[in-house]
Structure to design on (465 residues):
């Protein structure tokens, strides 16, 4: 992984950018399509044909939907066909074992063997993207793409192929064939990429090490030690995923694309409703546009709205993984968000802002316990360690680990807020700010490189979703 990261940063990316900008404009989508396939093969050569199948299938469906647009019955049948093919493909690779394990609990099916089906890299992301295209064309929200190379470039675009953000076709339909690369956008992209890389390498990875260290001694940490551990994981997953999203958006800027923001400081939220407007925005938008609203949204009365919300959160949990803990995590949020909609928000609005922040963080962090532990026994044990003093307040070992990592925790806590962003925009008007900015970005790049070379711990958490 370290070798791959260094190769990407100092060989693959510079070479791709150089060739991209010397390639004639009319051939750039073809180049992006080819180089994105190479990028995917770098990490997952076996299942590239699954991604190509999804691309070709939805491209053909889009053409046919547009052709039969005036015949609503045929157009709708084609749209449903595209959705079914995408969902069947996703379910086969991602949920077959999960569904079969449920059947095994029934005595008549207890002899069923579970096949070893590997999960293709990024399938949850690109399947949703291709599916959104067919739906958008059917609805008339986006024009049909008749150039298969341009459509292919949209599906396999390497900056966001592996772990998002999930880019809807309607959001970049115009950019695919009419984008304008500028020096200002390229510079903006470099800055955003380096910020995302720093989040990932300097904060997420270090928080991951802290979490793994404390998790290995859960039964001895004490209640505070266990809270420090799960808070570290909450920061790890935030910096990991938001860092990757920033890197993807930055790479998009370098290539002339503008992807929508995927995170907006979720840990400053004053309710879980607000938290989910700020966390993984692209996924929330997708479920809202393609599940919640088609189910009726809030247009069919309060009871139906609550039912629709629970369906959305059940599916949101299931999207993250084929295991009961993800389903429980989705239902957990569904219940809390329904409670907020019914009465809790009105109560929270009467409280001081600091208490509302504490409320939001408490339930978000607790939720990550459910999200992390796929083993139900370990999940229950960790939840118990957060709320009972069986192992005391905090062990000497956990306290020493906390104190040793206090500067990291402090920097991470600040980075979870818009403090640095606000400070940046305040000093940006100064005529010499670019010197400080360039110096800081250079230092961050050097630190990231040194960290990548010296450490083997470098997983992207959302690759497995």
């Amino acid at each position: 992984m370290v070798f791959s990261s260094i190769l990407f940063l100092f060989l693959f990316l510079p070479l791709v950018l150089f060739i991209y900008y010397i390639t004639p404009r009319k051939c750039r989508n073809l180049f992006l399509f080819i180089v994105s396939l190479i990028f995917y093969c770098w990490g997952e050569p076996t299942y590239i044909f699954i991604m190509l199948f999804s691309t070709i299938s939805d491209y053909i469906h889009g053409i046919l939907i547009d052709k039969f647009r005036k015949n609503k019955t045929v157009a709708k049948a084609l749209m449903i066909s595209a959705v079914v093919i995408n969902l069947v493909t996703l379910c086969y690779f991602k949920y077959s074992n999960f569904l079969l394990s449920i059947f095994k609990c029934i005595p008549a099916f207890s002899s069923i063997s579970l096949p070893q089906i590997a999960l293709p890299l990024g399938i949850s992301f690109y399947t949703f993207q291709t599916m959104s295209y067919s739906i958008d064309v059917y609805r008339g929200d986006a024009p049909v793409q008749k150039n298969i190379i341009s459509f292919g470039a949209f599906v396999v675009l390497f900056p966001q192929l592996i772990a998002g953000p999930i880019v809807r076709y309607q959001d970049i339909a115009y950019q695919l064939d009419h984008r304008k690369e500028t020096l200002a956008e390229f510079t903006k992209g470099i800055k955003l990429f380096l910020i995302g890389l720093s989040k990932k390498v300097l904060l997420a990875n270090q928080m991951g090490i802290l979490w793994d260290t404390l998790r290995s001694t859960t039964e001895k940490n004490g209640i505070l030690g266990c809270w420090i551990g799960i808070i570290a994981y909450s920061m790890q997953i935030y910096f990991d995923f938001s860092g990757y999203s920033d890197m993807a958006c930055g790479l998009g800027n370098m290539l002339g694309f503008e992807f929508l923001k995927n995170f907006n400081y979720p840990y400053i939220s004053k309710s879980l409703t607000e938290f989910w407007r700020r966390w993984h925005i692209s996924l929330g938008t997708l479920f809202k546009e393609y599940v919640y609203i088609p189910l009726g949204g809030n247009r069919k009365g309060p009871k139906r709205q609550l039912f629709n919300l629970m369906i959305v959160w059940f599916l949101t949990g299931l999207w993250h993984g084929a295991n009961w803990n993800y389903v429980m995590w989705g239902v957990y949020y569904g219940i809390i968000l329904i409670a907020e909609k019914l009465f809790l928000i009105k109560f929270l609005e009467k409280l001081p802002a600091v208490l509302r922040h504490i409320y939001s963080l408490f339930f978000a962090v607790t939720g990550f316990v459910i999200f992390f532990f796929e083993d139900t026994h370990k999940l229950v044990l960790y939840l118990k360690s957060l709320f009972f003093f069986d192992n005391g307040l905090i062990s000497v070992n956990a306290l020493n680990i906390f104190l040793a990592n206090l500067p990291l925790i402090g920097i991470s806590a600040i980075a979870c807020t818009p403090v640095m962003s606000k400070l940046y925009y305040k000093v940006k008007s100064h005529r010499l700010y670019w010197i400080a900015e360039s110096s800081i970005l250079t230092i961050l790049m050097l630190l990231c490189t040194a960290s990548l070379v010296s450490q083997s711990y470098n997983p992207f958490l959302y690759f497995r979703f």
Notes: The chain has a mean pLDDT of 89. DSSP finds 20 helices and no strands in the chain. The chain has two domains: 44-156, 185-464. Residues 185-464 form one domain.
